[in-house]
Design brief:
The chain is mainly α. It contains 18 helices and 5 strands. The chain has helices spanning about 15-20, 30-35, 75-85, 115-130, 150-160, 175-180, 205-220, 245-255, 265-280, 295-305, 315-330, 335-350, 355-365, 375-390, 395-410, 415-430, 435-450, 455-465; strands at about 105-110, 135, 145-150, 165-170, 195-200. A 5-stranded mixed beta sheet has the order 2-1-3-5-4. Strand 1 (about 105-110), helix 4 and strand 2 (about 135) form a beta-alpha-beta unit.
């Protein structure tokens, strides 16, 4: 996320840690939950029924999908649009609206990872079809947007805590390094969009690469801010959504509406926005506004410290407790309250597993019935189903896992989908349904190769999940 005074990664400290671990440790809480079961010592290959085939199946990819339109009031969406476009994450405001004017060209440089072009072309098709953005890929020496595909080490040499990032007025990492402290790369001083660069890793999992593409290209084209109050958006630092949602496409479509133009003030955009949204999202006109409260800086700081890689475990636990207390004192009843309990559960899962489980159940109680939170619930299901499997309750785990896997597939999260399917296979084994378990486990591996990357990571995940299931007496 761009900062107020200098360009940095789009990810705050907590999300940088999560994003950098994705592929090697996505769904990190699950790995530690193996300690709640009588896990055997680690061995060279997966044990029991979880043994991977000698040759893993091909990488699976998601078919083209069109996400569900936002199920919220246009009044709420207008407020979100203005806060996304006219604020930066650090709290400062932007004086004017910016976007690309006219057709947008995009080129790719560097050494793209396998599958990169497929995912990029799919994203560009979505941006044209769903957001109405006139963007096309070119092969020349210049373009409106340059995506440079480089190693993670090169990205970290430029920005030590970044996984991927976007910068205005440059076309390469070398150019960025020369100008990183100048006004031209300062997002808060940007007054028009004509040339931007997106830096994407080429040596991580396919899903990590794709997720970076979605986030960074969306910010290159549209809003620069992220808002924790958004339950259904990639423009949110909670890392719940992996690809652009229906809400995100509506925001981008409104960004390029003919009624708006670069240079408009917040008041001018606010005056035109109701008519824009009524035209683009007629279903939101008759929906009652919810008007979630602002997210205070104190909660953001506590939450990000709880997940940040630089704090000690004790400091992280104190921060998680602080975030939960702030959420309680503010009377929140939304996904942010649930996120506070979920984070506490993750902090406590090894030392106090029963207390962690209560926090996970509390988090789920705040999410059930809330629109736009199916992915939040699917991620929580990993924790709850793992506990059910660790205690031998396969039927209860299966009841949770089926709907969650459908949600993960609908939202194109292969890492989450493969984890849920691996859990489902262990639950089926507990129920004596070994043939089904083998089929589901095999299905999980193709998704795992997309979500987690290297075969050894896939096999390690399979082993960790198998360790949850109690050994037969």
């Amino acid at each position: 996320m761009p900062a107020d005074a200098a360009p940095v990664s789009h990810l705050p400290a907590c999300r940088q840690g999560l994003r950098l671990l994705r592929g090697a440790a996505a769904a990190a809480a699950l790995l530690a939950l193996a300690a709640c079961a009588a896990a055997p010592a680690r061995v060279e290959a997966p044990t029991r029924a979880a043994a991977a085939p000698a040759a893993l199946p091909p990488v699976k990819v998601f078919p083209a999908r069109r996400p569900q339109p936002p199920q919220r009031s246009n009044a709420d969406i207008a407020r979100d649009f203005l806060d996304l476009h006219f604020r930066l994450e650090g709290g400062s405001t932007l004086p004017q609206f910016t976007r690309f004017e006219g057709p947008i060209t995009l080129r790719v440089t560097g050494s793209p990872a396998p599958g990169f072009s497929r995912d990029l072309n799919a994203l560009l098709a979505r941006l044209r079809d769903e957001a109405g953005i006139p963007i096309r890929r070119v092969s020349g020496d210049s373009a409106s947007i340059t995506i440079q595909s480089v190693s993670r080490a090169e990205i970290r040499r430029a920005l030590p805590k970044a996984a991927c990032f976007v910068v205005p007025n440059v076309s390469s990492l070398a150019e960025y390094r020369r100008n990183r402290r100048s006004a031209r790369t300062n997002w808060s001083l940007l007054r028009s969009r004509e040339r931007l660069a997106v830096f994407i890793p080429n040596d991580t999992s396919p899903q990590e690469v794709r997720d970076c593409l979605h986030e960074e290209l969306a910010q290159a084209l549209g809003p620069l801010n992220d808002l924790y109050r958004l339950p259904d958006s990639i423009f949110n630092d909670d890392n719940v959504h992996a690809v652009l949602t229906g809400f995100d496409m509506l925001i981008l479509r409104a960004t390029y509406a003919p009624e708006l133009r670069t240079g408009m003030s917040r008041a001018e955009v606010a005056e035109r926005l109701p008519a824009v949204l009524a035209r683009l999202n007629p279903g939101g006109a008759g929906t009652a506004a919810v008007w979630l409260p602002e997210t205070p800086r104190a909660w953001i700081t506590a939450y990000e410290q709880a997940l940040g890689p630089s704090a000690s475990p004790r400091e992280r636990l104190r921060a998680a407790n602080r975030a939960a207390e702030i959420a309680r004192s503010l009377g929140w009843q939304d996904h942010r309250r649930a996120l506070s309990h979920y984070t506490l559960g993750r902090m406590l899962h090894v030392r106090e597993p029963e207390l962690a489980l209560r926090h996970f159940h509390t988090a789920m109680s705040y999410l059930q019935g809330l629109p736009g939170t199916r992915m939040h619930q699917a991620k929580l299901t990993v924790q709850l189903a793992a506990y059910e499997i660790a205690t031998g309750n396969g039927a209860a785990a299966l009841a949770r896992l089926g709907p969650a896997a459908d949600t993960a597939a609908a939202h194109e999260n292969a890492a989450l989908l493969s984890t849920l399917l691996m859990l489902q296979a262990e639950a089926l084994e507990l129920e004596g349904r070994s043939v089904e378990a083998r089929r589901v486990r095999l299905d999980s591996l193709g998704w795992a190769r997309y979500g987690f990357g290297p075969d050894w990571v896939v096999e390690a995940r399979l082993e960790e999940i198998a360790a949850l299931r109690p050994s037969a007496p």
